[in-house]
Amino acid sequence: MTDEQNSSINPRGPILHVIVVGFHHKKGCQVEYSFPPLVDGGTYDSNECPPGWKYLPTLALPDGSHNYEEDTVYFHLPSLTNPKETVYGISCFRQIPVEKVTNRTADITRGTVQKSVCVLSTLPLYGHIQVKMALITHAYFQEGDFSKVSLLQDTYTNLNDCLNEEMLESSQVFVAICVWTYIPKSIFWLSPRDLVLQFKHKALLMFKLMLLERKVLFFKSPVQHLCSTILSLLSLHPGMIEKGLKESACVK
């Protein structure tokens, strides 16, 4: 790590890592790049994940993502430094025809290239981060050369400069993004009204199950709509989005 790169890392900010996850035709989903490195003393292009985050690649690039040109997924990981805290993942994934890749590597053997650009944050600002990452992901793919990662390093610095814990006290925490192109067609608030209109009396049933801490399996496609539905349900409980998810990924 050079002095210049080291000086751009701000460990005190809410953004822990900016990561690229790709799909390898033999190895499956794997981390291809991380800034800063995921493992202390590791390199930026290492495929290694910390033991507590071994499922990070499959969470950031979920099964079935190849069915969509682009989509977004939110996920949680346990904190590596505090067993009672959660790390919030926001992953924007895309796929483009291999003809648009200007710097092809030996592992590119299929007709399309699929990758995700993922941010790991200590703050649950899902939609606020996602709207920025949708643009970053598009620009990264538009370049056609995935070895050019200066944009991702700048993203890490810029997000740490503009995000802070005070935003959890504002309406920014309730922003949800519906993305079908790299420029969001609509930016809307988490809507309990839409949740009730869609599920009717079952919305109350799901809310009761949440209060009882029962296990509920959700299935919906594309996954961005699923994430927004779950967050809308959680928002019915006052303070849940802002402060209630801190231990959601903790292993008891």
Automatic annotation (TrEMBL):
The record ties this protein, via InterPro entries, to: ABL9/DENND6_dom, DENND11/AVL9_GEFs, Tripartite_DENN
Q: Which GO terms describe its cellular component?
A: cytoplasm
Q: Where is the UDENN domain?
A: 16-252
Return the similarity comment: Belongs to the AVL9 family.
Q: Which PANTHER family match?
A: LATE SECRETORY PATHWAY PROTEIN AVL9 HOMOLOG (PTHR31017:SF1), LATE SECRETORY PATHWAY PROTEIN AVL9-RELATED (PTHR31017)
Protein name, please?
UDENN domain-containing protein
